[in-house]
Design brief:
CATH class of the largest domain: Alpha Beta
CATH topology of the largest domain: Aminopeptidase
Distance between the termini: 23 Å
Largest sheet: 11 strands, mixed
Shape: elongated
Oligomer: single chain
CATH architecture of the largest domain: 3-Layer(aba) Sandwich
Number of strands: 11
Helix content: 25-40%
Order of helices and strands: EEHEHHEHEHEHHEEEHEHE
Low-confidence stretches: 232-239
Radius of gyration: 23 Å
């Protein structure tokens, strides 16, 4: 943990019998000072033993952390809390934190994935593997999706530009499919990108042009991805293998999570990123 933050510091609360009854740890993540316009102090951990809770100890520990903002030059304070920890969220909201982002981790099980692979695209749309050499044709679609993504970024891609997508498609283990109009093969209407790992697949991005939504295109793209993730590597042609679970991470999930819930993905974890000024 100390190798991740610089500076890195903490405070402890000690009871009358000299035992530690609470602690707070915080720091500035390495690299953020130059990669971000603001310098954020991250609360890594704060807690009080059960017997000493509701005595203002956590509030005092946070006050000490807050007092270090001037020392380390922080302009804001951030903390990530598990979405199920209602008491922790309430505590930080009381310290004037606001919810900045919600992240939802989901998983599509092999059984559910098998059902999705049976999805067929609408008759006017063709789903086929996407290669780096075809990214130029995707430019119009990528611009359209990037404009939406700029307002509501639901994924962890570095960027949704032709250059960024080309780089991603050239990485080992990447699986990608595009959706194309049958009568206009130069006009893609959707794209999905995933990564094959040893024991699972990770969906990196899926997007469909707004004019082609709610027609089953997104579901068909996801089905193609799930099938490809289950193919044996190094065979020609690839042979079908056992389907892998597909991990999905989305930020500020409404309404994107509705799509994944409909295809059978289950919520594994929800995290809340909270922030306040220093």
């Amino acid at each position: 943990m100390e190798a991740t933050y610089d500076p890195f510091f903490g405070f402890v609360a000690v009871s009358a019998d000299s035992s530690v009854c609470g602690a707070a740890v915080a720091g500035i993540a390495r690299g953020t000072a130059t990669s971000r316009p603001t310098r954020a102090l991250q609360v890594v951990w704060i807690g009080v033993t059960p017997a000493f809770r509701r005595r203002g100890i956590a509030r005092e520990l946070f006050a000490r952390v807050h007092g270090e903002c001037v020392v380390v030059g922080a302009t804001s304070i951030e903390v990530t809390v598990d979405g199920g920890e209602a008491e922790a969220i309430s505590f930080f909201r009381a310290q004037q934190f606001e919810i900045e982002r919600q992240t939802m981790d989901m998983v599509l099980s092999p059984d559910r994935g098998q059902q999705v692979t049976a999805t067929r695209a609408p008759g006017s749309v063709e789903i086929r593997a996407l290669h780096a050499t075809e990214v130029g044709v995707l430019t119009g679609l990528l611009i359209h999706l990037a404009v939406e993504r700029a307002v509501d970024p639901h994924d962890d891609l570095e960027a949704l530009t032709p250059t960024a997508v080309t780089s991603i498609l050239r990485r080992p283990g990447t699986v990608a499919y595009g959706a194309w109009e049958h009568d206009d093969p130069t006009s893609p209407v959707g794209v999905a990108i995933a990564v094959r790992r040893a024991d699972e697949g990770v969906l990196r991005f899926i997007g469909v042009h707004e004019d082609s939504r709610r027609l089953g295109v997104g579901r068909a793209l996801l089905g193609a991805i799930v099938s490809a993730l289950g193919e044996a590597v190094g065979t020609a042609p690839s042979l079908p293998g056992p389907l892998r679970p597909v991990a999905i991470r989305i930020h500020d999930p409404e309404p994107v999570q509705v799509f994944f819930r409909k295809v059978g993905a289950e919520i594994v974890r929800v995290r809340m990123d909270l922030v306040r000024g220093a």
